[in-house]
Amino acid sequence: MASSFPSVSELVADARRVFGQVFGEETPQVAVCAPGRVNLIGEHTDYNQGFVLPMALPLVTVVVGSQTFGQDVTVVTTTEDADEPRRVDFRLPTDRLFMSPGSPSWANYVKGVIQHYRAPLVSGFRAVIASSVPLGGGLSSSASLEVAFYTFLQQLKPDDGDKVSKALACQQAEHTHAGVPCGIMDQFVSVLGRERHALLIDCRSLEATPLPLADPSLVILITNSNVRHSLSGGEYTVRRRQCEEAASVLGMASLRDATIMDLDEARDRLDDVTYQRACHVIKEIERTVQAAEALKRGAYKEFGKLMVESHNSLRDLYKVSCRELDELVSAAMEVEGVFGSRMTGGGFGGCTVTLLQAHAVDRTILHIKERYSGTPTFYVTIPSEGAQVLSLS
Ligand code: GAF
């Protein structure tokens, strides 16, 4: 019923086959992978220095490749949805010269990571990318590519940083080369995700608390609306600016410490839209902390209620949902055994995440299929490990 997706070893086999075809080399020196993510709650709070509660997915991006002697870089992607051409050739920039982003867009993530890599790269490489993270599905295909590529470069030339600095470098790549002023959530969980755990990330201190999430009676269902989402369209940037504007009117560095009372006191200095955006962020940070507490207690009903409140706020106050995501959430909530459902990620399309009792999965999928006006794709997922180096034997 739910879609099956290729395993890590299948992706590696695919990438190795293409590597052999393109470069005529039997075995690449290195193989790595990094996961996409689903955010359970805490949406559009990361760039407000708030809390988020994502988990890493078993959907991953794999990179295989080898170092070469010159300065030449060749990267090939096997991703069918990626824009053409699927092969790029360029030279490593000397003295960190800025490599301008351009076309194809998937290569910008690679260039961005090379640009922000925390050690000087001395020789070129050949690499092949293969991924099971749907592009534009709001499951952080871009962060998983950035983190996988960074992990690949670490095998060629070790850097001097820790895992958090790795996530920060990948976030910079997204800022400068994809043009999205994203927060830290996606790259952070792609690097530091833990098997069988969600991560409560404090996006101000950059500390993460792993929360066990491996109850066999519980299922995390992702439903892809198959409405392609893109954050580079400008709406994301607009939301971020509105939050900064609200914080500045409140005389604060961010909305992290603001209360609804603070916001109401400043009501006549804020336009309606900015007020609503800030209201979402302040309450969403609170909801995320409450949801983490509920998860610790195994209070899934309470968790689910907070998920729905989060969705409604993203729809009504933050205005980043769309008709299709609203339909998916309403349909899921009609099924007995479903605790909660919400859009996940940046919004404007992409996926919903639903928390439900394991025995209700099949009927939930059936019901959503019946009720949804589009063609959804389903993934039953488990919290997975962050970026890893893989054995090639
Ligand atoms: C996107 C961004 F990349 C994240 O940083 C985060 O802001 C998210 O949208 C919304 O919560 O995934």
UniProtKB/TrEMBL annotation:
It holds the Pfam family GalKase_gal_bdg. One of its GO terms (cellular component) is cytosol. One of its GO terms (molecular function) is galactokinase activity. GO terms for biological process: galactose catabolic process via UDP-galactose, Leloir pathway. Belongs to the GHMP kinase family. GalK subfamily. This is Galactokinase. Residues 108-193 form the GHMP kinase N-terminal domain. Homodimer. It catalyses: alpha-D-galactose + ATP = alpha-D-galactose 1-phosphate + ADP + H(+). Its EC number is 2.7.1.6. Catalyzes the transfer of a phosphate from ATP to alpha-D-galactose and participates in the first committed step in the catabolism of galactose. Keywords: ATP-binding, Carbohydrate metabolism, Galactose metabolism, Kinase, Nucleotide-binding, Phosphoprotein, Transferase. It is an enzyme of class 2 (transferase). Residues 19-66 form the Galactokinase N-terminal domain. Pathway: Carbohydrate metabolism; galactose metabolism. Residues 291-371 form the GHMP kinase C-terminal domain. NCBIfam families: gal_kin (TIGR00131).
